[in-house]
């Protein structure tokens, strides 16, 4: 028997983790818990980076990405660039369970969701539409729409939820769900629905899930690397730190303002997290993650260490 735990990225991950933990208490599996935690964030219109209420792409269309992976079976499902369908992590689960494939994109994902009973519903809220209008009126938007360069990742335009859970059977699962970087180019897909990048689980070793600048993180297979670090004996925090320092060391420039962060859950229930110092160490937003377990069933917000090429802050023991 294991001690059930759900962990997630960001402070709003506390409510999501609590929803996942409740699902475990109700007899759900780790996979169920990850889905419930994802749905909690997806349904919340105040979370501007996930599901309903997520900020749209450069053309004002909300394109959702999500994935889920089951440690028991090592099966995975994912959707990307999904439009006008809520709860994309649940669609990803149906892809995993009812299709022979791992990932469905755009119109194909949408048709699949509709064929499996998901309702067509705009995911663009009035607030998100207003923020897009404001962005569109700005100079940055003129540059983006005219030339389609990369869109700056500013503190308020990203915040994917990455989730890991372990149930009382000791089985693990991981998930990730996002509206991606706000004002992204139409069709752009980040790390979140990519197995090994936005999430990964190996039932023998552990699970990991990520948030941040997906265009960087997917090149480092961040979640896979974090789980393999645990497989080689690192504790969860060390595993996250090593993966992020690898990412930083391979960037074409070390002067990169964009952030990446990861949470990790080891097979024995130990948890950890870390974030890059640049990008996520902002006055308005420090890097936080969340846990729900028997000692904090309603979820608590935790602070992870920061990482840069020079070191780890605060220094790990
Ligand atoms: C993406 N990883 O689409 C997502 C965005 C994100 O915190 O996580 N931001 O690249």
Shape label:
globular
Count the E strands.
14
Mean pLDDT: 91
First-to-last CA distance? 29 Å
SS field, number of helical segments: 10
Percent range for helical residues? Answer: 25-40%
Report the top-level CATH class: Alpha Beta
Describe the SSE topology:
Elements: E1 5-9, H1 13-25, H2 30-43, E2 64-70, E3 75-82, H3 88-98, E4 103-105, H4 106-115, H5 126-136, H6 139-147, E5 161-166, E6 172-178, E7 199-202, E8 206-212, H7 214-217, H8 222-231, H9 236-250, E9 260-266, E10 271-276, H10 277-280, E11 288-293, E12 296-303, E13 306-307, E14 312-313
Helix pairs in contact: 1-2, 2-3, 8-9
The structure holds N-hydroxy-L-asparagine.
What report would you give on this structure?
The chain has 317 residues and is of the alpha+beta class. It is 32% helix and 25% strand. The chain is built from ten helices and 14 strands. An eight-stranded mixed β-sheet has the order 4-3-2-6-5-1-11-12. A six-stranded mixed β-sheet has the order 7-8-9-10-13-14. Strand 3, helix 3 (88-98) and strand 4 (103-105) form a beta-alpha-beta unit. Helix 2 (30-43) runs antiparallel to helix 3 and helix 8 (222-231) packs across helix 9 (236-250). The protein is globular, with a radius of gyration of 18 Å. The model has no long low-confidence stretch (mean pLDDT 91). Bound molecules: N-hydroxy-L-asparagine. N-hydroxy-L-asparagine binds at residues 158-160, 178, 180-181, 190-192, 211-214.
